[in-house]
Design the sequence.
């Protein structure tokens, strides 16, 4: 394997890993606190990309990326809260709520995908790149946008970790995650933590969507593949464990990049699922998960 | 009466655990609850703290009804519970656990003084403040649990089996700390199986059986070990 292939594999692995880390950490937060999976998480990525496109592109409001990106993030934060209020909140106290919420979020995802198709039309869209051009590393050209994603994502995740570790609100989120009743007894307003979690996870997904939208086309179903990978990552890294999720995301990203190189694009998902099955057999709680 | 539980029935789903139970705790009083396992002592504390809502009856604290308030509102009024056993935040440090104890609005501003008090009471916790809760011993966890409740700046402190499953030496250490807390004058409601502990700390006791108060002692009334054994084994029912 030549050096430039290796660099190319690493770059595409880390870019994919970054996207998966952003997606999976949101899923993991929701799982950790509510013990529910949000199947509409992929549509949040898609909506983030469309929102950024609509605000920034000349065929939309033409305000440029400097407005488009923050606007999309704010809009999606509200979208996350709305999604919680409509699809999760009404069912949360019912028996079997976790299963009901799978159905309601799947329904929501289907609705939002079709709404996007209806609202934005079938023509593929693309976001402007935040940074244009390439750099040469070891005689291999790397796009600056890719490099930005690789550098920016760990910073975002670090900020997330600091928020969870150092702020009062972060402390409350972790409390709800680790012991629901004790969090109540400590005086945490658990009912207000849930929408907050959805807002944070939606912003992370939107960020992934904005990154993806600058590399590939924006389509109503663009969130499906990253969501599937994020599920693999969350299970692989250990349900509810944020460090496990982040490490898992990069591992899955690299494995996928290698698999694409070795067995091709179509067989790469098969490789991922084989890896997942192996992990499930050898370490059922995931890489860093303590309990399920 | 700061705390008045009046004919409360409560349970989980269709299972009724408490049947028209009434207890009262006076200002500055230390009251003990004891009785066999699975007869509703913990459920009663959960109902008082707002974790479960009574199906009937009322609970008042400092003259105001708290029956339908959320747990955080009850904690913020100074009615704080230290829950049973392994109820910490396992992947957080001792310091983080204690800090969460002061989460409710009123207590947050006083958290530094409260922390100093907790560390003075349990010097061991000061040494272990950076350690993850799940790596603590049973006794240390219990200390954190009591400490968390103290961080909530309680005017009425409820302790749920603070010495459950502890080795005798650790038990003594906790009993001593609980006596020290009692000596500060805070009103207390203590559930424990260790009758010696209750006799040492409490002025009055309720014996709870089948979700009802089946016996209560009056203040000043001496109750000895023998009588309690008889209560447990049913030979001295009045």
Sequence:
């Amino acid at each position: 394997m030549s050096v430039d292939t290796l660099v190319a594999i690493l770059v595409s692995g880390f870019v994919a890993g970054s996207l998966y880390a952003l997606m999976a950490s949101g899923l993991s937060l929701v799982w950790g606190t509510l013990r529910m999976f949000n199947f509409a998480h992929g549509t949040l990525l898609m909506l983030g990309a469309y929102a950024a496109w609509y605000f920034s592109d000349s065929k939309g409001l033409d305000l440029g990326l400097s407005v488009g990106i923050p606007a999309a993030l704010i809009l999606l934060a509200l979208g996350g809260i709305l999604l919680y209020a409509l699809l999760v909140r009404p069912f949360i106290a019912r028996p079997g709520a976790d299963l009901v919420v799978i159905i309601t979020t799947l329904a929501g995802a289907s609705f939002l995908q079709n709404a996007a198709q209806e609202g934005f039309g079938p023509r593929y869209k693309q976001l402007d790149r935040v940074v244009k051009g390439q750099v040469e590393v070891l005689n291999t050209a790397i796009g600056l946008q890719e490099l930005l994603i690789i550098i920016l994502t760990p910073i975002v995740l670090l900020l997330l970790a600091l928020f969870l570790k150092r702020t009062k609100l972060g402390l409350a989120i972790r409390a709800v995650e680790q012991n629901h009743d004790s969090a109540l007894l400590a005086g945490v307003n658990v009912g207000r933590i849930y929408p907050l979690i959805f807002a944070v996870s939606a912003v992370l997904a939107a960020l992934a969507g904005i990154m993806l939208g600058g590399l590939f086309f924006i389509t109503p179903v663009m969130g499906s593949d990253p969501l599937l990978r994020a599920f693999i990552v969350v299970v692989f890294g250990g349900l509810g464990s944020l460090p496990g999720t982040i490490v898992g995301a990069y591992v899955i990203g690299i494995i996928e990049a290698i698999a694409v190189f070795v067995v091709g694009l179509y067989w790469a998902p098969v490789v991922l699922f084989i890896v997942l099955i192996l992990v499930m057999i050898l370490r059922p709680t995931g890489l860093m998960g303590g309990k399920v | 009466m700061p705390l008045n539980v009046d004919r409360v029935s409560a349970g989980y789903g269709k299972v009724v655990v408490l049947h028209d139970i009434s207890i009262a705790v006076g200002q500055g009083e230390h009251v003990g609850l004891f009785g066999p396992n699975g007869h509703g002592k913990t459920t009663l504390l959960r109902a008082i703290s707002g974790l479960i809502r009574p199906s009937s009856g009322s609970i008042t604290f400092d003259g105001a009804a708290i029956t339908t308030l959320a747990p955080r509102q009850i904690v913020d009024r100074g009615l704080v519970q230290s829950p049973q056993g392994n109820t910490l935040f396992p992947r957080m440090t001792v310091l983080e656990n204690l800090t969460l104890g002061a989460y409710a609005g009123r207590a947050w501003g006083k958290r530094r003084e409260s922390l100093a008090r907790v560390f003075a009471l349990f010097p061991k916790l000061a040494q272990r403040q950076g350690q993850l809760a799940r790596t603590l011993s049973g006794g240390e966890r219990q200390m954190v649990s009591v400490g968390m409740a103290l961080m909530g700046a309680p005017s009425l402190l409820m302790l749920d089996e603070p010495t459950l499953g502890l080795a005798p030496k650790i038990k003594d250490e906790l009993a001593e700390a609980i006596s020290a807390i009692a000596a500060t004058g805070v009103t207390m409601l203590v559930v424990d199986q260790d009758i010696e502990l209750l006799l040492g700390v409490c002025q009055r006791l309720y014996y709870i059986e089948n979700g009802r108060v089946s016996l209560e002692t009056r203040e000043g009334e001496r109750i000895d070990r023998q009588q309690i054994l008889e209560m447990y084994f049913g030979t001295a029912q009045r």
In short: Strands of chain A lie at 134-137, 140-143. Residues 3-34 of chain A form the longest helix (32 residues). The two ends of chain A are 40 Å apart (CA to CA). DSSP finds eleven helices and two strands in chain A.
